[in-house]
Amino acid sequence: MKKLDFEKPIVELYDKISQLKELSKEGGMSLEDDIAKIEKRAELLKKDIYSQLSPLQVMQISRHPNRPDTLSLCQLIFDHFMELHGDRAFKDDPAIVGGIATLKKHRVMVIGHQKGHDTKENIYRNFGMPNPEGYRKALRLMKMAEKFSIPIVTFIDTPGAFPGIEAEERGQAEAIARNLREMTGLTVPVVSFVIGEGGSGGALGIGVSNKLYMLEYGVYSVISPEGCASILFRDAKESERAAKSLKITAKDIVDLGIADGIVKEPVGGAHYSWQDTADAIKKVIQKDLNAYKKTTDSELFVEERYQKFRQMGIFSE
Amino acid sequence: MKKLDFEKPIVELYDKISQLKELSKEGGMSLEDDIAKIEKRAELLKKDIYSQLSPLQVMQISRHPNRPDTLSLCQLIFDHFMELHGDRAFKDDPAIVGGIATLKKHRVMVIGHQKGHDTKENIYRNFGMPNPEGYRKALRLMKMAEKFSIPIVTFIDTPGAFPGIEAEERGQAEAIARNLREMTGLTVPVVSFVIGEGGSGGALGIGVSNKLYMLEYGVYSVISPEGCASILFRDAKESERAAKSLKITAKDIVDLGIADGIVKEPVGGAHYSWQDTADAIKKVIQKDLNAYKKTTDSELFVEERYQKFRQMGIFSE
Amino acid sequence: MSILDWFSQKDKSSVVTEKLNIPGNLWIKCTKCAEVLFLKDLDLNHKVCPNCQFHFRITPEERLKYIFDFDSFQEMDAHLKPIDFLKFEDTEKYVDRIKKAQAKTQKNDAVVTGTARLKKQDVNVGIMDFAFLGGSMGSVVGEKISRLIELGVENKNPVIIFTSSGGARMQEGIMSLMQMAKTSAALHKLAKVNVPYISVLCDPTTGGTSASFAMLGDVNLAEPGALVSFAGPRVIEQTIRQKLPDGFQRSEFLLSHGMVDRVVQRKDMRETLSRIVAILSPVACEL
Amino acid sequence: MSILDWFSQKDKSSVVTEKLNIPGNLWIKCTKCAEVLFLKDLDLNHKVCPNCQFHFRITPEERLKYIFDFDSFQEMDAHLKPIDFLKFEDTEKYVDRIKKAQAKTQKNDAVVTGTARLKKQDVNVGIMDFAFLGGSMGSVVGEKISRLIELGVENKNPVIIFTSSGGARMQEGIMSLMQMAKTSAALHKLAKVNVPYISVLCDPTTGGTSASFAMLGDVNLAEPGALVSFAGPRVIEQTIRQKLPDGFQRSEFLLSHGMVDRVVQRKDMRETLSRIVAILSPVACEL
Ligand SMILES: [Zn+2]
Ligand SMILES: [Zn+2]
Questions:
Q1: Torsion-angle region of D207 (φ positive above 0: left; ψ -120 to 50: alpha; else: beta)
Q2: How far does the CA of residue D247 sit from the closest CA of chain A (Å)?
Q3: Which ligand does the CA of D49 lie closest to?
């Protein structure tokens, strides 16, 4: 598994522990006490490092190639999941997936960006960057969910909508804009999770929800720190500074009133345990769906969503 | 202007009349009596020929390159007409046009197939054969009309939906099918005219209407006589027989209960006077829109349309 | 235009199997991979070639047997019969064509409709029969499909239709074209009351059938390798004057072009359908 | 990503005119055809080059003058002001950027909203000002646009918005992104009460603005030659590593790709808008 720069001291400690264990076994020496000590130190170091990550380091975790993807989470979270394909007009976009699922007594429509874990997968998934038909597939499935009164769960994980010639030709702007408007009016609850990278309009395009949760090391930003830095500082290397200014971490997003809560990840990040991550998300979904099940007037879902976004904005009057 | 085969005797007579007139002028001879006689004969011959056209001959008139097209009719019929473009997803299809118009106190959304009058125009208009985006533009405009309570008028004039690779890729079948379903539910009246060629599903795709009128020399068919002949008789030359069997003329369509009436054309066909043709259509539009204006419950438009199509079909029970 | 194909196709690429000259016809050669198959094995395998997964065309009765709860099907409107109201005559009279097709299929027309149970869930089912005049849609098919959908409006049970049709039936002229509007109109009524409609595209589904109820499922499924198109391949080849690429207009092509939700092996159809019905059905479901 | 462009573009392809070094600045050189134009003539021609029809960027005040009934505009919410709530700092503090932009444009933020009359028809109007921080959408723009649309919900008069914006305002971070959802949500309310919304795309309309209210008109109009895109040309060129074709992402390109209803010359805008309003408006119209 790919190690991030700031993980190196931890990795080194764990390597040492492995060596000691090996030694202890082979040489018959009793090194348990030393090992226990170092293990304790490693745990502390890990907690220490992960408690003071810079926003850019968090972003690195959010983009980790082994981070759990939408389809894998669907398998881990739901009792059954069946993918549904296509926008019924142009193409099935592999960068956005969706399908129907069950979770105990709940029926769910799941929609999410889909990244890959290796080069081949990433090329197929276009690195999780949707084309317009991806947003249109998402909208089709959301309308289907609305028709059959099925709550919607979305998983956000994209560097952004794809900036390509054909995407522009087919109306990337139109597709996202339409989703923003139409998601507002859905008469079913929508619960969203930023499971990795929440990249700008491409993320928001499936993120107009009643509840929004950030995974602990997920990020959500109006522009990538690299892009911001290259515009404002004329230097992409200033992305550390840009990342700080933009306020992109889970805590920032909650503090600004955009997200409703943070879903804890395993120490080190979701890529250390997909199952634990899935379990944590599952709990939140169940809690929210149980609560929403009590709502009998479906217009309340629309009103809640409208009010939530209506009050976003900070200005003086 | 292109002359059709069966028009030749008439054309010859009129040529003779022209010659006589020339002679009369030049030679100072008084040939008025003869000319009047021949003119009368020509008129009779014309009426005679046009009263016993074969279905295939009618089809030739319906396809005449100088037959008035949708956009020209819009200019001639309405007080103002403004074309609106695009399906908001892929392309603006030149083979289907549409726009908003006014006619006295009426607001109207007009939609129609668009053919050209020469090779260049026909290539641009794809000979009036729409791609899926044409049907999707039509649907967008119809939904807009419904939103703003604007009655819809459609002009049907197509050999059929385009049978091409890209049309299939983008869902020609889906686009037409969706229009059939969605047109059913429009809460505004829809009045359709087969102004030329009503070619199969490609015609019906904008033809699910409350009222359907055939222009006198318009045709409406499930398959082109040529296509039918090449399938059933394995010989395209048998299209005369096929055209007869298929029952495609205005009278046939009315007799079968599919169309509500016939709009008279100038003798010889609409291409002899666009203005007269437009005036005749205009009258029908005004009559129907005046009548529909009295309907206050917009669900009645839906119900009328549903019942109309629901009862189409002949079988034994 | 849309129907141009199935007619000529029938001979060329049809899946009608070549029976080997062995007493009792117990052996059959796969249309696709030419493997010689024991007929009984093929039956047990849902009429899917064990060697290449080629899905043979099957009868409505076989489909009922493979997919729905045993003996749960209740047919309706079986008595509706076509009429040769145009006195349509080509090389053969329509009325004679009807008689032959009826004799061959033991059915009055090209679709069977009724109610059935799918893993104990009540559903409304329609199954088209390609063996009856190429599954073409005339007045009877349009009427039976419409009544089936209207039954769904009434009893609120999901509607499932298996399509297999060359398109509109030209011997009924313009009236066959109108069946496209009629069936689609019925689907509008069904959509308004939020009852699920699942379309299962089987080989082949083209022309007026694909351009009406076949493409309008809340969920569109397709059997592997089924030809699904508006214009048939032959018409398109004539238009563009070149051969079409392999796999063009087949189920998998439609999947990648966003037209169908899933391509489903015949052996998985029962499970897939019942799961979709359970999730979409407004009727309280035991999951 | 979406905003990457206007910033760097400003210098390169901006339409800011090159004023010639002549006392009084009475002459100006056309950005497109380089023709030297008399400033007063240009003004009389709606700031459109008489030689090449190039549409110069104009101020909200000029737009009001060219299009709406004389003196009919009533501004609202002019007092709303941006706040540097993130203490955003790049090479310059956001708070200082705001001050400069306010001094330059004599406006508190990048959009002017209010009511006006268009050939005697009451309408709700918003006009963005690209001169104010590239017309970027922060909290104030989002709030003013939303209130304008909500006014339409209330008074039932058509809403017309002229867009000209590089996208979301990154100095307000994630909050600027949310203005996309907020304004689009308001449009959903407007659509539900069937009040017409006409979007007029002016040069340039990109990023978060194009991907929200700008593209959602019942009717989308565009000024000739306006850049309208989601991703800016520079980002796309970086992605595909080649030059983009001429006219890519310009109004005429959007027209042929089905995104806008009409490309309208500035001189025809008043007539076109008033006609559309008259036909679409649910308020009884005298035609
Ligand atoms: Zn085989
Ligand atoms: Zn110029």
A1: left
A2: 12
A3: 2
